[in-house]
Amino acid sequence: MAVNSPCIDVCNLDGKTRLCVGCFRTLEEIRGWMKMTDHRRHQLISDRSRRQAKLMRERWTIEGRLSGDNISNNPPSYAPVSVLSA
């Protein structure tokens, strides 16, 4: 059974983690999706929650340092670093 792409057409890379803020894949993984085995695709999709948490931690830390406040009640926002082409 084919594994569908996790892309949600948000396609912006986070500057620190280099993960797409929409699908949580690296640029190399996005580019190589069509050539990946279904097993590898399942691995990437299964790793989504860990990658999302990593992105959130990095964004939270960076924004805390920028604002001078290490504790914030506001979730981090996502600023696009680059736009990927399909």
TrEMBL record:
Residues 66-86 are annotated as: Disordered. InterPro entries: DUF1289. It comes from the Bacteria. Pfam families: DUF1289 (PF06945). This is DUF1289 domain-containing protein. It comes from Trinickia violacea.
